[in-house]
Design a protein that fits this description.
InterPro entries: Kinase-like_dom_sf, Prot_kinase_dom, Protein_kinase_ATP_BS, Ser/Thr_kinase_AS
GO molecular function: kinase activity
Number of domains: 2
Biased composition (Low complexity): 353-366
Binding site for ATP: 44
Shape: globular
CATH superfamily of the largest domain: Transferase(Phosphotransferase) domain 1
Structural class: alpha+beta
Largest sheet: 10 strands, antiparallel
CATH topology of the largest domain: Transferase(Phosphotransferase), domain 1
Helix content: 25-40%
Enzyme class: transferase
CATH architecture of the largest domain: Orthogonal Bundle
């Protein structure tokens, strides 16, 4: 690093350090300016946790430097949108440690995201698929990550994950302990075989990925203990307790978080399981345990049969009402939690506000809202009347089934839960994508509380006007993710058969609820 001025620090005569982004035992990450190409980059100086390593063990220090350079060069050959791009490696020669110049990912880290609130299963499954794609690309290039954890998953501004810090992970595998016996790095996400001293192979990265997803949906680490040694002992000897909030993601976690790496599924199988979890995770699994609000929470008014209680949406999605009566529903918000409870008793005097005798929820628009003239540009791809009809025809032609337990429509594809003939509960998942046709999911399923429906009489021609209404009413300024979800009737409550037209950005989701004939039943803004 050169110092032209006292307040100007330039690496390799080219990368001007501007501000510190973070750091730890393995070095410091800086936001920097590439003075040659006039772009912002991230620059990290790689250093071992023990600064005296070069003095008491120069051979190990030299090995670390060479290994980081070798793995950084290998990773630079991995061209994948979910792997951080390495632009340049600054090598000062013997007696120095490398500087790695990478793309600057500006959406923060997964650790930052989880500090606000846990994830819904579908959101976590989608993120897990992106990280798994990155790992598979790296493994194909002969590179193992060795340190998959929330802090090493960066998020682009559109929410896509980017895996980083491969070169740092290489150091940890070269020397597990410093001269004083301190462990380099954190033990929380290390696979048991790596704790035991083995390299572990790609299966160890899968363990770390699954543990990260467990933490993402549960909000806590199941094996973290009061000290690092106690955590290591738990990873080595204790079983991972079953998750309570993972819903359709639970089978993936149960399959991967086993101590025997040979018993874990291959990456391709994990990808299929995550895809199925993402498809099935649009609503949380019901729980038989009555959830209680936090001690300091103010309970919501007790709804009467004619009232509607609408949970507020989570930062990357929204939670539907729980399927079982007398079960509390929690909606996770950025910066806090809002609890909506249905207790067995309560103060009937606390009623919801009404408008003209019609009960409403603050922040929502009353039913019977007239549809505007369709002017939207969001009706694209499969998210059009013709696109939906085409997908449903293709699925019926392929399967012979026309009764469904769920439907999700995105501009890129349509997925359904097609009921097994003769059954009201068992279904198979199918996805239709233009150019690929109908593909069957890997795992069958069973409906919980929902009743299957026919979609033949749905007025899909109302979709453009509903999307226009959503743009006007939901308060999502720059929607990055328009989609449609089926709301089948529920055998445990009075939810009507309907569908939701949803708009989302990176912060929140709002939706318009419409009857099968396209009549507006409810409008719930993103901040409602």
């Amino acid at each position: 690093m050169s110092d032209g001025d006292t307040d100007r620090r330039v690496v390799d005569g080219r990368f001007e350090l501007e501000s510190r982004l973070g750091g730890g035992g393995m070095g410091t990450v800086w936001r920097a300016r590439d003075l040659l190409l006039h772009r912002s980059v991230a620059v990290k100086e790689v250093r071992p946790a023990d600064p005296d390593l070069a003095e008491y063990d120069p051979d190990s220090a030299r090995m670390l430097r060479e290994r980081v350079l070798r793995e950084g060069r290998a990773l630079a050959r991995v061209q994948h949108p979910n792997v951080v791009t390495i632009h340049h490696i600054v090598d000062g020669g013997e007696g120095t440690y490398p500087w790695i110049v990478m793309e600057l990912v500006e959406g923060g880290s997964l650790a930052d995201r989880l500090a606000r609130a846990p994830m819904m299963p579908a959101e976590a499954a989608r993120l897990g698929r992106g990280v798994l794609d990155a790992l598979r690309a790296a493994h194909a290039a002969g590179v193992q990550h060795r340190d998959v954890k929330p802090a090493n998953v960066l998020l682009r501004t559109d929410g896509r994950p980017v895996l980083t810090d491969f070169g740092i992970a290489a150091i940890r595998d070269s020397t597990a302990l410093t001269a004083t016996g301190s462990i380099i790095g954190t033990a929380d996400y290390m696979a048991p075989e790596r704790v035991a001293g083995s390299d572990g192979g790609p299966a160890a990265d899968l363990w770390s990925l699954a543990m990260m997803l467990y933490v993402a949906v549960e909000g806590h680490h199941p094996l973290r203990r009061g000290t690092t040694l106690a955590t290591l002992a738990a990873v080595l000897h204790e079983d991972v307790p079953p998750p309570k909030q993972a819903g359709p993601l639970a089978p993936v976690l149960a399959a991967v978080l086993v101590r025997d790496p040979g018993a874990r599924p291959e990456a391709e199988t994990v990808e299929h399981m995550l895809a199925a979890a993402e498809e099935d995770g649009h609503e949380p699994a019901a729980t038989s345990y009555p959830l209680a609000p936090p001690l300091n929470a103010v309970p919501a008014p007790v709804p009467t049969p004619s009232e509607t209680v609408v949970p507020r949406p989570e930062s990357q999605g929204r939670m539907r009402r729980a399927a079982l009566a007398s079960v509390a529903a929690a909606a996770v918000l950025v910066g806090g939690i809002t609890w909506v409870a249905w207790p067995d008793g309560g103060d009937k005097a606390s009623a919801s506000p009404t408008t003209g005798g019609r009960h409403t929820t603050p922040g929502t628009t009353p039913a019977d809202t007239p549809l505007p003239s369709p002017t939207t540009k969001l009706a694209t791809g499969m998210l059009t009347p013709d696109g939906i009809r085409k997908a449903l025809r293709a699925i019926e032609d392929r399967t012979g089934r026309d009764t469904f337990g769920d439907l999700a429509v995105y501009p890129e594809y349509v997925s359904v839960k097609a009921m097994v003939p003769g059954s009201r509960t068992r279904y198979d998942s199918y996805t239709y994508r233009p150019g690929k046709g109908v593909e069957k999911g890997t795992l069958p399923g069973t409906l919980m509380g929902k009743l299957p429906v026919s979609l033949k009489n749905y007025r899909w021609d109302k979709l453009p006007a509903l999307l226009t209404l959503a743009e006007q009413k939901l308060g999502v300024d720059k929607p990055a993710s328009p989609y449609l979800l089926l709301q089948p009737p529920n055998e445990f409550n009075d939810d009507p058969e309907a569908f939701e037209v949803c708009l989302a950005d990176k912060y929140a989701t709002g939706y318009v609820l419409a009857s099968p004939q396209g009549k507006v039943l409810k409008v719930v803004p993103a901040d409602g």
